[in-house]
Amino acid sequence: MASKGIGPGDIVAVFMKNSAAFVEIAFATSHLGAVFLPVNFRLSGEECGYIVAHAGARLLLADEEFAATVAGIDNVVLVDAAAQSDSGRLASPGLAVPAPQVRKPEDLFRLMYTSGTTDRPKGVMHSYTNMAWKCLDHITALGLGREDRLLVVGPLYHVGAYDLPGVAVWMAGGALVVEREFDAAGALAGQITAGRIAELARRGRA
Hints:
Number of domains: 1
CATH topology: Rossmann fold
């Protein structure tokens, strides 16, 4: 992203399903002082194009499987299957890691667009303060710690997966197990049983 001129205040959009790269790109965007804009991958090309243009996004990263959907949008980087597991594959070899950009608490961390039920989607602004206090509240209220494992099956473009409690588990020293798409049999048998996902059971006291 830095090699494409992305810097503080720039908006970087993603049109992706769940993957390690989704989360890595979100943090890399923040590292550069840019603003993260996750877009619902179920939208049409026209709908995605409207959000990208309305937000003034300088770059859109999209899963390769959505190449046809985003074909009419400028400045698109396609993320293939290999890069979905390791976003470092998107960079040219030998590039130096840029220094982190210091941001203020009130600076914009993320843009989230509404569904547009009554009109065009509208951008909702989330500051670093919003995100930090949300995570701290979840850590306190849920008693999150380093032993916790959270199974993420909802789409990361939505706050339900990314935020509730989402990355707060990481902040507390725990781990996320990210499923690309929800599969009931696979999630129950493969992740909860074999992967010992304690988060679901331990939070069942509510």
